[in-house]
Amino acid sequence: MAEGRLFTGKELINGNPILNCGEDEHVYPAGSSIDGNPMVKEMDFFAADNNFSKEKVCADDGVVHDLELNTRLNLSTNTSGGKSNVDDHERRTSYNDIIGNKRKVHELIHVQSELKQMHVENKRLRDMLNQMNNNYNGLKMHLATLMQIRNAKTEKDHEMINAAVKEKNHAVADEPSQNFCSSKEIIQMGLDKSDVGDSATTGREKSLDDHQAIIPGRVANKFPKFGTSMDFDQHSETVSSLIRKARVSVRARSDAYMISDGCHWRKYGQKMAKGSPFPRAYYRCTMGSSCPVRKQVQRCAEDRSILITTYEGCHNHPLPPAAEAMVSTTSAVASMLLSGPMPSADHALMNSSSILSRNSALNFATLSTSAPFPTITLDLTQSHNSSDQFQRETRGVISPNTLFPQVFGQSLHNQYSNYLGLHGSQGMQAAPNRMQNADAVSSATAAITANPNFTAALAAAIASIIDNTITRNSTDNNA
DNA sequence: CGAGTTTGACCCGCGC
DNA sequence: GCGCGGGTCAAACTCG
Ligand SMILES: [Zn+2]
């Protein structure tokens, strides 16, 4: 239901979802809804009119004639009574008024019927436009991906970025365990939360992940082994036991109460998060029979224009075209974010966030694995605010000098199929040189994610990939 | 009547 | 152990 409300006429016309789409219920009559049968409603309307015309008027073609007939009968009756010409004139005038009123009623009926037909047509066009919009987004994504692939695979750049990755990993390894929280996260903490001790000030992804990443005590409770010298296998066991589901959180500016991501969601709960005046809504994916994907939607406490959407789990069903096409890019982002530090068993998940934060170009995505819910946070609000600088930077990175890598190459297809097929045999491959692609991937993704509707699908896809990846790594390590 | 939403109750983990 | 808060459940309700 909520999803259906997103695709309202206003939304499609403006190109962006609009808050309180329920207004359409007032704008459009219930009969114009595509869910119901608009023709039935229209038929009922005419049926009522026919009843009306049976008593006073006649059906469509004979309205005027029947009225004239009745008029004559009345006149004859009245004239037999010896009325004056004045009265007769008044009667004629009143009859003319009646005729005029009947004509007006009839015209009104026609106008209303036409209006309803227009509503039906409007609804149909809206659906078409929606479909076209989805297709457009998908094609745009695909085109971007193909262009990146063309520009990719330069051995020189691979080596260069490879070295950069090693350097970053080395630097991360030298960091104290309690500094795993990325600078980006720290910045976000400072910007988004005025009260560090208070949870859920800016959304659940921060209250659970960032807060726990910042606060050592909570981290120690959640992951007591990560900061120690425990082996990676033991870490993985701990992770597998603690991790319930990976999450992707998207911060995007939107006035809509929920971002359309092509999936169908059913709301199963809503709570007032502590420290936030805005409620947090819980949704469950209803596209699949038993799809485990859930998402939380909450508005940022500091900036109500920012909508925070957190996805969790992987879909067990094919996605609509709008979401499918976006998986290409999301796969790349997820691959880069997730699989980078995994092969190095020394520091496990924790260091990934630091690695990501060190990439200057990757300024919109952060990975927080310090909680039971490894979470990628995509902050897309900056791209909308400083579009000029961002676009400039984006164009620069995506230029032919930049690479778009194997992430969009070989891994892409693996993860794409894995995402679509879900729990497929091809998990996320531990490509050794993923961080090299950080700039290009992030820039391309950021450019594409300028579309608010994309962000949700992006997050859903990444969440799905994260889940698969972590599960696979855990099982592999346990084996 | 089925699907979705609302909302209070309940469960569970965590901190004190 | 107790209280708090996040997350989920499920009955009641709404809507098409
Ligand atoms: Zn699903």
From TrEMBL:
Transmembrane segments: none annotated. Residues 115-142 form a coiled coil. Keywords: Coiled coil, DNA-binding, Nucleus, Transcription, Transcription regulation. The keyword Transcription regulation applies. Residues 254-320 form the WRKY domain. It holds the Pfam family WRKY. InterPro entries: WRKY_dom, WRKY_dom_sf, WRKY_plant. It is found in: Nucleus. The keyword Repeat does not apply. One of its GO terms (cellular component) is nucleus. GO terms for molecular function: DNA-binding transcription factor activity; sequence-specific DNA binding. This is WRKY domain-containing protein.
